[in-house]
Amino acid sequence: MPVPPEFDLIGVGFGPSNLALAIAVAEHNATAATPVTAQFLERQPRFGWHRGMLLEDATMQVSFLKDLVTMRNPASTFSFLSYLHSHGRLVDFINHKNLFPLRIEFHDYFEWAAAKVDDQVSYGHEVVSVRGGDPFFEVRTAGGEVYRARNLVVGTGLRPNLPEGAETSDRIWHNQQLLHRIDDVRDPARCVVVGAGQSAAEVTAFLHDRFPAAEVCSVFARYGYSPSDDSSFANRIFDPDGVDAFYSAPEDVKRRLMTYHANTNYSAVDIDLIDDLYKRVYREKVQGKSRLRIFNTSRPVDITEDETVCVTVESLTTGEKTVLEADLVVYATGYLSADPTPLLGDLGQRCRRDEHGRLRVERDYRLVLPDLPGAIYLQGGTEHTHGITSSLLSNTAVRVGEILASIVDRRPALDWSDEYVVKEWA
Ligand SMILES: Cc1cc2nc3c(=O)[nH]c(=O)nc-3n(C[C@H](O)[C@H](O)[C@H](O)COP(=O)(O)OP(=O)(O)OC[C@H]3O[C@@H](n4cnc5c(N)ncnc54)[C@H](O)[C@@H]3O)c2cc1C
Description:
Blueprint: E1 6-12, H1 16-31, E2 38-41, H2 80-86, H3 90-96, H4 103-116, E3 121-122, E4 127-132, E5 137-141, E6 146-154, E7 158-160, E8 172-174, H5 178-181, E9 190-194, H6 198-210, E10 215-219, H7 232-235, H8 240-248, H9 251-261, H10 271-287, E11 292-295, E12 298-305, E13 309-315, E14 321-326, E15 328-331, E16 335-337, H11 341-344, H12 346-350, E17 375-378, H13 383-386, H14 396-409, H15 413-425
Parallel strand pairs: 1-2, 1-6, 2-3, 6-17, 8-15, 9-10, 9-15, 10-11
Antiparallel strand pairs: 4-5, 5-6, 7-16, 12-13, 13-14
Helix pairs in contact: 1-14, 6-10
The structure holds flavin-adenine dinucleotide.
């Protein structure tokens, strides 16, 4: 059997995080004496970034300047501005005076960038197990292929979060599925959306537009949708310096920072969208036909499925229960970081953990795995160590620069001298 090729790094997953890393590798290799060999394995058949939520008018929650590269290399040809230029839209975008592009436009930018580093990616390759690491990790895919690498960078993203006991079905989904399944829904009389974050508000507005004859009920525990804080001082929490500060802070300060600034990201909605939803509710009140109904300070306590789905909504203030017969229920109840350890098998057991059972992670995003020459880096799942940027795009460009620098710096001295000798003799 042929021995699988050996790479400096294998990236598991090819979302924006590992795409940004592939670009950093390409830019490094353009001038480096010793190129870094990298291969990224992605389970989707082609590049895709949360396609189920690519709503036509949804905008980015981060400045376009925090694209895949600019914070690391403002002169990069992989920037959002280079993308606009290559598509003949640069001047139109400038006239737009807008820091927050459409999500569909940013997706197109990601696809454009991904196509430029296509040689580093294998799509349709789901990683199912990892072992070894002394010195090579063996990475196995669902198709049975084996890849070998000295370093792994796990960027497997988020997984949908459902309330405890909640089950999905043909008519009950997490919002992740929205655009994949919405065409199957015909003339619903009522839709129920559970949740009060950005996705919940977007789904509520979307269903209200899409089905003009349907009632849309939004159910959440808060009194009202809360605005996301994108003010300048609070935004510094997403800065590279913010990551340094968070990483070195004592545990109680970390906890306090997350509480103070959770509303920069979690369960928070763009103020324009909140205003838009309120206008709809008010307009319908004036017209005497309220079909956008807000069940605030409420929660679904029972959901049964028969001819229709019956959602029992309980008011948290009065305890009153309302039964809503619905054709569709969408849980927009957030996401959790994908836990990398099941994929890592025995290696996962060997990872050092803190007193709360969470993975220990070095400042360069390396898992603490003693007695192993190979290194496993995490892109995502490091909120407890590196702070709120962990699962976001804000710091991606800088983070991948740090990971690549660490991989290059930690290359065994032997490799470098081998290369050097070969060059001298050539
Ligand atoms: C609807 C939505 C909108 C968002 N908008 C913003 C925003 O505006 N700004 C912002 O900063 N953040 C936003 N986020 C947060 C989001 O986490 C980041 O935008 C981004 O997706 C993080 O990139 P990633 O590559 O780490 O993870 P992902 O984008 O989730 O990519 C992970 C990839 O890994 C692949 N994968 C998983 N397991 C395996 C496996 N075993 N083998 C092979 N491949 C695998 C997946 O198929 C996927 O392609 C948004 C999130 C959602 C859900």
